Amino acid sequence: MxxxxxxxxxxxxSHPSLVTADDQAxxxxxxxxxxxxxAEPATDPILQGALVHLVSYPGSMIRARxxxxxxxxxxxxxxxSRNLAIGVEYFHTASLVFDDLSxxxxxxxxxxxxCVHKRFGEATAILAALALVNRAYALxxxxxxxxxxxxxxxxxxxxxxxxGASGVLSGQSRDLNFSSADDSAGAILEIAAxxxxxxxxxxxxxxxxxxxxxxxxxxxxxDLARARGLGYxxxxxxxxxxQEEEESGxxxxxxxxxxxxxxxxxxxxxxxxxxLNDLVHEGDQIERELRQENSRWAFLNRLRIAVGPxxxxxxxxxxxxxx
Length: 323
Fold this sequence. Notes:
Layout: H1 24-35, H2 45-55, H3 62-73, H4 78-100, E1 109-110, E2 113-114, H5 116-120, H6 122-144, H7 149-163, H8 168-176, H9 185-210, H10 215-242, H11 245-248, H12 254-258, H13 263-267, H14 269-293
Antiparallel strand pairs: 1-2
Helix pairs in contact: 2-6, 3-4, 3-9, 4-6, 4-9, 7-9, 8-9, 9-10, 10-14
């Protein structure tokens, strides 16, 4: 199937811009991302340099901004909203560090910068990622320590389900151990669910759980995370196939070279685009249900991937960059 797909200059497949330059919350989150993992005086200078490198390239911070807005809708304070949001983003950033290592995806560029392990070495990169994970847990537990026992346990179990051996770690393991013996479209999407969906689910549902939101609301948020997360992964599969490094901001063509799961190369452009379109509409329906409950959930529309009507030609060739 891949032989039918070739890179073409000028094609742009990108995620939506989540906030504008004048979005004060977004600016504050970017600042907090840089500051909340400040090294202590006793921190080794090389490790400190790696941490500074990581927080100097925050990316879109989609998960952090979604978590912050969800927390505010659920009535949490600014400080709690910020700490939960940055905790989620540190988890995500740490996962990218591990994902880029030579023993995994062997990437060179992330967020339009050299990967931290390429600049500081793999050992230091791992330590920096662990520092982010530790800080993320500290930020989250600081905001849940005052919850009643049963409530706190529910939050703890949820975080573990997202980050533990049955969550993002399982998704990463399945990705690394992917083989042609199980390369169905369903298997590819389930791997995406373990990796991409899990952290988006953490971003949307963690604030709602901390705020003790109604179970139906949390369930809808989890369903939305799956629809939008799978959509993002399919968009990334398109980017890996069609975009060059300077466009996507990360090492491209890794799925093919490492024989990793990629829906576009498995089923072809038309079917992958159709699946993406279906996921967009599924997410739209869930958003409508949430907005009917509370109009303040309207911010979730910023997660929507716009699939343009001219996405494909009659021959199934990508035409626009509206992913």
